[in-house]
């Protein structure tokens, strides 16, 4: 596929092309197949940009299958997803005239449940189904593996280039997010389809280690929970696989440079006094 030169260029001639945006990629491989990928933590402004691009799917063209790949989302922004759902609901008839069926590939764990919840608010007249694997989604859309495999590989290369992250780290983070409690090298390597030694070698080549990436995913997941839920710090610690609030606070401070309660205070609102006091007491025992 060839890169489009901006939204207008893409809307005018999308077939066989793609458009890269901030936190998303929309592609139109052939007249009967298109889709988009989301990653990171798309904010409302990013979703507004995506919505401009989605108009390409409701322009009268050949009926097509649609693939929505949300596996790489780290934390959905409620305001952003509400905007997306509202856009889709208002244009349901237009999409129904061009979309034959749509497959959503969601992340696993809490993020996946949230994404699936937002998707369930849509009630399109065309068939839709939720998956956790792109290969299964493509098969349901009617694409044989001989056609879907090279396309998925091409899309993955585009995502790798856009995120600046190696494929092994992307896959490792995706596997770890829903399995932070009791996460270990052996089970993670098995889920990724490789031996422990191979995973360790590939991480070393990327300049990192399993423990370093596990800690990074723990903290990033914790940040999402601190921002988007009212969970107590102890509950967040347990949810991301830390043995205690003291362990969680030490890890968070090491990677972020400040305590979880201070970070939440600065990025969201003031923490409950009891919560801040509990953290100080736990940290003071170290």
Notable traits:
Arc Repressor Mutant, subunit A; alpha/beta; 15 helices; Rossmann fold; single chain; transcription; Homeodomain-like_sf; AraC-type DNA-binding protein
Can you characterise this structure?
It holds the Pfam family HTH_18. This is AraC-type DNA-binding protein. GO terms for molecular function: DNA-binding transcription factor activity; transcription cis-regulatory region binding. There is one protein chain. The protein is of the alpha/beta class. Helices cover 56% and strands 15% of the residues. The protein contains 15 helices and 7 strands. It has helices at 7-12, 44-58, 78-90, 92-96, 109-119, 134-140, 145-163, 167-176, 185-191, 196-205, 210-228, 233-239, 245-256, 260-267, 273-284, and strands at 2-3, 17-21, 24-30, 33-40, 64-73, 99-105, 128-131. The chain has a 7-stranded mixed beta sheet, sandwiched between helices. Helix 6 crosses helix 7 (145-163). The longest helix is centred in the middle third of the chain and has 19 residues, at 145-163. The model is unreliable at 270-274 (pLDDT under 50).
Ordered list of secondary-structure elements with their pairings:
Blueprint: E1 2-3, H1 7-12, E2 17-21, E3 24-30, E4 33-40, H2 44-58, E5 64-73, H3 78-90, H4 92-96, E6 99-105, H5 109-119, E7 128-131, H6 134-140, H7 145-163, H8 167-176, H9 185-191, H10 196-205, H11 210-228, H12 233-239, H13 245-256, H14 260-267, H15 273-284
Parallel strand pairs: 1-2, 4-5, 5-6, 6-7
Antiparallel strand pairs: 2-3, 3-4
């Amino acid at each position: 596929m060839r890169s489009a030169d901006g939204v207008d260029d893409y809307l005018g001639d999308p077939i066989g092309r793609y458009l890269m945006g901030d936190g998303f990629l929309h592609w139109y491989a052939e007249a009967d197949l298109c889709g988009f990928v989301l990653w990171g933590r798309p904010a409302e402004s990013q979703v507004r940009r995506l919505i401009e691009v989605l108009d390409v799917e409701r322009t009268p063209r050949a009926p097509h299958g649609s693939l929505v790949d949300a596996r790489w989302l780290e934390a959905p922004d409620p305001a952003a997803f509400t905007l997306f759902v509202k856009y889709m609901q208002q244009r349901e008839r237009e999409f129904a005239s061009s979309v034959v069926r749509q497959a959503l590939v969601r992340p696993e764990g809490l993020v996946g449940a949230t994404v699936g919840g937002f998707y369930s608010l849509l009630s399109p007249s065309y068939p839709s189904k939720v998956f956790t694997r792109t290969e299964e989604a493509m098969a349901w859309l009617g694409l044989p593996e001989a056609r879907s495999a090279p396309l998925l590989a091409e899309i993955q290369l585009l995502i790798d280039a856009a995120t600046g992250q190696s494929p092994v780290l992307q896959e490792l983070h995706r596997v770890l997010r829903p399995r932070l409690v009791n996460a270990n090298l052996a089970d993670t390597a098995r889920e990724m389809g490789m031996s422990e030694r191979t995973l360790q070698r590939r991480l070393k080549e990327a300049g990192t280690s399993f423990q370093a990436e596990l800690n990074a995913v723990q903290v990033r997941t914790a940040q999402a929970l601190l921002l988007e839920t009212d969970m107590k710090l102890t509950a967040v610690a347990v949810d991301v696989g830390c043995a205690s609030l003291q362990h969680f606070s030490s890890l968070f401070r090491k990677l972020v440079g400040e305590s979880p309660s201070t970070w939440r205070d600065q990025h969201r609102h003031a923490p409950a006094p009891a919560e801040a006091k509990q953290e100080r007491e736990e940290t003071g025992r170290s």
